[in-house]
Amino acid sequence: MKLKSLMDSPCGLRWCIDELPLASSLARRRLLDRDLYTYPQPIRAAYQAVLLYREALDRVVKNWPDRMHAKLCNLKDLSGSLERIAGGLVLEDTELFEIKLLEILAREVAALHQEAGLEFDLPCELEQVQRWLDPDQTGVATFYIYDSYSPVLADLRKQIRNLPLGEERSELVGASMLEEARVRERLTRLLAPAVEPLRETLQMLADADLNLAKALLMVRCNRVIPQESAGEQVHLEDFRHPQIEALLSQQGKAYQPVSLSYGDTPLLIIGSNMGGKTVVLKSLALCQYLYQAAIPLPVKSASMRIFESVYLCHGDGQDLEAGLSSFSSEMLRIHAALQAVRQGERALVLIDEPARSTNPIEGTALVDALLRVMGRLCPSLVMTTHYDLRSESFRRLKVRGLENGTMNYALVDAPYDEVPHEALAVAAHLQLDAEWIQTAQNILNNNR
Amino acid sequence: MPFIQDILACRSVSLVGMEKNVGKTECLNYILRRLPVDRKKICVTSIGVDGETTDRVTLTPKPQIVLPEGCYFSTAERYYRERQLVSELVDLSRESTPLGPVVTARSLVAGTAMLSGPSSAQALQRWMQGVSRLGMDLMLIDGALSRVSSASPAVSEAMILSTGAALSAHLPTLLRKTAFQVELIRLPKTTVDVDELAEVSALGGGAAEQVLGEQPATLRVTGALTDRFLKRVTDLSPKTEVVVKDFSRLFLTPEVYRVFQKKGGRITVEQTTRLLAVCVNPTSPTGIRFDSDHLCQALSEQIGLPVYDVVKNSYEA
After folding, report:
1. Which of B77, B86, B111 lies at the smallest CB-CB distance from A144?
2. What is the CATH architecture assignment of B3-166+273-313?
3. What is the pTM of this model?
């Protein structure tokens, strides 16, 4: 699955991708067009490359990242021109100029890598490209069909220069344009064997941009490269949701990181309203996507494993286009996840308060049944609920909840007693209409 | 020729024609011939299409833009391919036009080329920032009166106005229209602290009533100032000072403006425009021909500025 197809996931992936300090649109496009990694080896290799840049950031002078960024801002995707060469078409001056600029850029970026003690071995064919596109070896970043490509052209231009505007001059200009076209054809043919090395160079530059951006994210935003999990269990130590963290930071508030292990036993999270259960599920989905895109994680430490897919089922919103209510669209999403795990898909299934929009008797039955059925097929199930479920086939955690008027978002093991009854306390904390809350309290007291 | 020195004292100059075929390209060629392109980095572009050999509307022959050796120019890629000169590419911008991206090149052997660069004020500003990075000393923008935004002081430092027989075959009308345009270009700068003023949009409708009473007031109009709006201001509070960003925001006819003025109103600008010169073309494609000296003199008297016929009088720098 390509990253770009996940950008609108409610987990906040788009925000995290936009946060990457990339210099070029090519690097972003290549990142989004890439499939999520589904094997450990490429993730390991990709993180290793990021780590090299991260280590380099400790060695280099302060403005090195800015200089790299300024250079990589000039990276353009020349795939179209390279296709044209491969297809036997003749390039325009502007395209030849672009290739010359790419070659110059690659050398400059290579020099910056060398300065940082990083390997960046350009394809050797690039030297030949440089000789063809800078025949006078001026080293200047300009281009035209130089006189030295053709003595005929040089002679024609000499004559043109000495003539005033008029018929005779126009004829010579026409002849020189024909000769220029011949040179362009010859140059394009010469460049044909360099198409693959040029493609490789584009990829190297885009990778450099991406790896530097990931490394900068580690330094600037406190992101971490996770360990590989030895087994089925995933562990996130002090994970944060970066988007919410940024939002809170703008309001001068601190984000409370949370830790969690999951993946080997179905997990049920219960707890008070406003206890951050939904944020937990979104964070788990986000961390999983980031891991399988080899992007450093917003955690203190983590050990991760690969999933074939991630299902984030939440009850927010109706599917108006399909004419579905919030209940039916939620049920269909859960059904899709269930069918996938039935067929053996190793999926991370995250379900947020299922069946919350129906009556509590049927809702409890539906959720209890879901936990039994899905939990049997999918140990990597994490579900949140307010329903009182008593089965022992899953691990139960709860949000610590309101403590002295402050919400403690930490997740702790929950004993098999009643689900927390904290809705009224939270409502009171929100300073809602006093009569309303008091009447609710009276009803509860009478029922007991 | 005094205005060449004035041009060289600026970072950016816009050429605006009051009508097609008023000699803007001749004026540009005249300037390009006289600018020291061998010593200064000078780049020229157009916000429309300039340098065609034939006028697309009147099908009459047009002068081509001659780019001297050493002169930089920016044009759409398609026109770059059709250039009749030897030039080296120095920059490929991300600014795109329907004719491809805008490229910047330096003329190595003088010749002609069609120019069609960035077409909006914002794109033009980006272009100027881009070519400034190439170390340009001066940027010349071939503009059009239908899009005076290029001459806005927010974009270019100074402007040159071209007018001529193509604007009107009736000399008094030609003089009156040109003088009115010059009057608008030279509107005085407001002395009021504009940040203190309530902002009103001429297109918003109704907002002026809230600001204006019977007492004289000052009104800051964001965006365009139109006849309709000025008429309303005249009716509501005739002695108002209307402040606009710059002259390029004015879309007024002389009749409405004169009534407003007579009733005690005045228009001022936040940013003034430096009008370096007014150039005239005494002939039109339809065969109208005024006496050049008489036209220059009559217009000069009316606007209080020197007026030049750069074709007839090949002024020396």
Report:
1. B86
2. 3-Layer(aba) Sandwich (3.40)
3. 0.81
